[in-house]
Amino acid sequence: MFSEEELQYLRAQPLARLGTVDAIGQPNVDAVGFEFDGTRFIIGGHKLENSRKYRSIAAGNHKVSLIIDDLKSQQPWEPHGIKIHGTAEAIEGNGRFGPGHYIVVTPTISWSWGLAGTSFQAGKFVPTRTVWP
After folding, report:
1. How far apart, in whole angstroms, are the C-alpha atoms of residue 72 and residue 114?
2. CA-closest candidate to residue 85, choices 102, 104, 67, 68
């Protein structure tokens, strides 16, 4: 459900920030490497199963946020990016880091800004919103 420009942007970005919530309600955000398979975001890493984010998801806290963004320019200020809310699962599989533990994020809603198809009104971007099936 991403536009072609959003897909190109995702392919060009190496890092994202993943927001999770632990068992006592404490939010946590981590920089993560990711790949997008056209439907889901796959997050891996060294000893991922020992991380707070993985343990939170494995314990049943499946709602997450993922943001991929950067600055196209600082003068003028031109941020662009994509924000995703979705559900995550902790899995064992074979991905870009080989066999091991991964987090898989399935989008439920996404917003993008600063990319084609978004508008700039009153000095700020008006995000494009997509609800996923």
Report:
1. 9
2. 67
